[in-house]
Design goal:
By secondary structure, the chain is of the alpha/beta class. The chain has 18 helices and 13 strands. Helix content is 40%, strand content 15%. Strands 1, 2, 3, 4, 5 and 13 form a six-stranded mixed sheet that branches. A hairpin with a 6-residue loop joins strand 1 and strand 2. Helix 2 crosses helix 14, helix 9 crosses helix 10 and helix 17 packs antiparallel against helix 18. The longest helix has 17 residues. 48% of the residues are buried.
Amino acid sequence: MFVPRTLRVAALLAVATALTATGCGSSDSGGSGKVSLTWSTWGSPEELDRFKEFNKDFMQRHPDIKVTLQAVPSYSEYHAKLLTQLSSNTAPDVFYVGDDNIAKFVSSGRLSPLNELMAAPDSKAKTEDFFDGLYGGAKTKDGQVYGLPNDANPEVLWYDKQALKEAGVTEDPATLNEQGKWTMATFLEMNRKLKGAGKAGSIFYNWYGSTYSMINGFGGKVYDGTDFVATTDLKSREALKTLADGYADKTFLVADNLPEGDGVEPQFIKHKAGFLAGGRYIIDTAKKGGQEANYDIVPFPSQTGAPIPAAVAASFLSLNKDSKHAKEAWTFLSEFVSKEGQTLRLKGGGNAVPSVKGAESVVLEGYPAHAQTFVDTRDKGYANYAQEAGVPGLTAEINDSLMKLWTGKVGFEQEMSDLKALVSTKLI
């Protein structure tokens, strides 16, 4: 499962200690005749429990393979540790990589290309099984694939019916969307009413998912071919200016900057905000409030009410090029991301959406009411733009630069100039 990087410092030190192996890499299991594999990821305690279930199921089907999970507590620590392990030839056989880090790992030359393995007749993970827009930086310009999207989190707008009602909003966003009337103008008017009622209109995380989805909603462009045009395209500038003005007058809140004790969950479940941008993982927040019926989802709006492409958070499962047991490692990787593997991991209220075709039933299990929106957004969405995802660290630098604008540390025109200069020097 993948979520915005600001959510990834998980409270799982105890769980990680219990799950983490003492060594790295793979080896034969001391005379037992079994091949021993390790794989690594970050995640919440609930996710790690699901991974343990998958490991158990996999080993029952493959009694000749022993699988050990290495869990790392925080997202940032995870990738730094993994790079160190790769450089010292002590890395796990298979490992997760986030979409904002995948380009760095591809360029390291330490990942095994997967195209031939996927094309094999007995492969459990075929190229055509996955939505092309979800590969992001895991696919190079020449078509080589170095990581498979293990699942996805389409960026949608969760909304609080009670908060909207208290602000005098009488129309239901999901109903408007079904009628083709869910427009940016309507969304912004609802935000104004929420602000007038003493609530926040919307909460956004400072990442490309929310920012670029808003640009798409205004009809703007982030890239035109290989050129970064978000700072010059008139509709894109309008979207960014709307965000900046909304943050300035507290119509919008930056989730990353909310104070401890009054963060995203308290804001949303106490009806202090009308909208919260995020993925399927917000299900846990809604359920903690004990008022699940208050919440539903709707896609990001457009100017006309027609559907738009929206961002899809993704992470990838990659194969260590130096694995001593590449065949068995691929068996594990391919089954993990297969239809059956994703169904096992995500059923029963899992907090992500399958990246593979044919497993949609796990999303449509009954909550929220318009769960189909997750599937529709995934089908039309993208895991960051290839131009950006292919440059290590660029997305993080863009986010950091925009944060200066969101927090009022620089003016709008200055930020547009600074951001254009930043991206122009990085694009290749």
